[in-house]
Design brief:
The complex is a heterodimer of chains A (about 110) and B (about 170). With about 110 residues, chain A is of the alpha+beta class. Chain A is built from 5 helices and 3 strands; from the N terminus they run H-H-E-H-H-E-E-H. Chain B has one domain (about 10-155): START domain (Alpha-D-Glucose-1,6-Bisphosphate, Chain A, domain 4, 2-Layer Sandwich). Chain B is about 15% helix and about 35% strand. Chain B has helices spanning about 20-25, 30, 135-145, 145-155, and strands spanning about 10-15, 45, 55-60, 70-80, 85-90, 110-120, 125-130. Classes of the chains: A alpha+beta (about 110), B alpha+beta (about 170).
C-alpha cells in the first residue's frame, strides 16, 4: 500500500476503473472474469484497467485455483479517505482560529471602551 | 464537513458580520491571524486582490513538529466583494511558484479550485468553503451507500494475501 493518493485519483479518473471500484465495493470480491462480463470493454481492456488499479494500490489480487480474485485494498482506500478528512480538519482548524481571533478582538474593543 | 459526492464542503456560522469576515480573508495582515490551524502559525501573507491577481500564505508547523514553513498560493479567479471569492490552491515556494510534483509532500494535489461564499445570516456570516478538482472521482466512490460497510468486512485479517505478480 502507501502509494500517493494522487496516483489513486489519477487511476480513478477513468469511468471504467471507477466502475470497477464501485463494483468491488458492492460485491466484495470477484474473479477477473466476472468483472469483465460486467463491462462492455474487452477482457484485455479490463485486464489493463485492473493492472492500473493494482499499481495505484486500490485493488489487490489473489490466485485461487485457476482464478484471479480481485478485491479493494482496504488499507489504501482508508489512507486516501483519511487524507480527505485531514483536509477538512485543517479547514476547521483555521475557522476555529478565525473565531478565536474575532472573539479576541471583540474583547479588546470592549476593554478599550 | 458535508459532501454531495463531488467535492469537499466546509460550512460554518462565524460570529461577525460579513464585512469583518470578508476583511479577514482579503487583508493579508489579518489572514496571518488565522491561516495557521491549531498549533501552526502564519508568519506572512501577501494578497493581490483582483481577478487574475495572486496570493501566497505561509504556514509554520509547531516546533514539536519540526517548525517547517510551507506556502499555499494561487490565483483569484473571481471576486464578488462581500459575497464570493474563487481561487486556486497550490503548494508553492516562498515566491508563490507551485512546487513541481517531485517536490510535493506525499498526498498533495495541486491546483485545487476553491470557492469561499459569504452569506449574511441575521448579522452573522455563514461561511462556506468548497474545494473541487482533485476529489471528484474519489469522492464519488465514497459516496456510494454501503461503501464503509463493505470496507469494514474486508479487514486484512479476513483476507489471505498471496503473491501474484504480472
Amino acid at each position: 500500500m502507501s502509494r500517493s493518493p494522487t496516483i489513486a485519483f489519477a487511476a480513478l479518473a477513468d469511468p471504467t476503473r471507477l466502475g470497477i471500484v464501485d463494483l468491488l465495493a458492492r460485491r466484495g470480491e470477484l474473479p477477473a472474469g466476472d468483472i469483465s462480463t460486467a463491462f462492455t470493454s474487452s477482457a484485455s481492456a479490463i485486464s489493463q484497467h485492473l493492472k492500473v488499479l493494482r499499481e495505484a494500490g486500490l485493488v489487490s489480487v489473489t490466485r485461487r485455483a485457476q482464478q484471479r480474485i480481485y478485491r479493494l485494498d482496504t488499507a489504501s482506500m482508508a489512507e486516501v479517505e483519511g487524507w480527505l478528512s485531514d483536509r477538512a480538519r485543517q479547514w476547521n482548524g483555521r475557522l476555529d482560529a478565525m473565531a478565536a481571533y474575532i472573539e479576541k478582538t471583540r474583547q479588546e474593543t470592549h476593554d478599550g471602551e | 464537513m458535508a459532501s454531495d459526492g463531488t467535492q469537499i464542503v466546509i460550512s460554518r456560522i462565524i460570529n461577525a458580520p460579513v464585512p469583518t469576515v470578508w476583511k479577514l480573508w482579503t487583508d493579508p495582515e489579518l489572514v496571518t491571524h488565522w491561516w495557521g490551524p491549531e498549533d501552526y502559525t502564519s508568519p506572512s501573507a501577501t494578497i493581490d486582490l483582483r481577478e487574475g491577481g495572486s496570493y501566497v500564505f505561509s504556514m509554520r508547523a509547531p516546533d514539536y513538529q519540526g517548525g517547517a514553513e510551507s506556502f499555499t498560493g494561487g490565483t483569484y479567479q473571481r471576486i464578488v466583494p462581500m459575497e464570493r471569492l474563487e481561487f486556486t490552491q497550490n503548494i508553492t515556494d516562498a515566491q508563490g511558484v507551485p512546487l513541481p510534483p517531485d517536490r510535493l509532500p506525499e498526498n498533495f494535489s495541486q491546483n485545487v479550485h476553491t470557492v469561499v461564499e459569504f452569506k449574511d445570516v441575521k448579522g452573522l456570516t455563514e461561511l462556506t468553503i468548497t474545494e473541487r478538482g482533485w476529489t471528484r472521482s474519489l469522492m464519488s466512490v465514497f459516496a456510494y451507500a454501503g461503501m464503509h460497510q463493505s470496507l469494514d468486512k474486508f479487514t486484512p485479517a479476513l483476507f489471505q494475501r498471496a503473491s501474484v505478480t504480472d
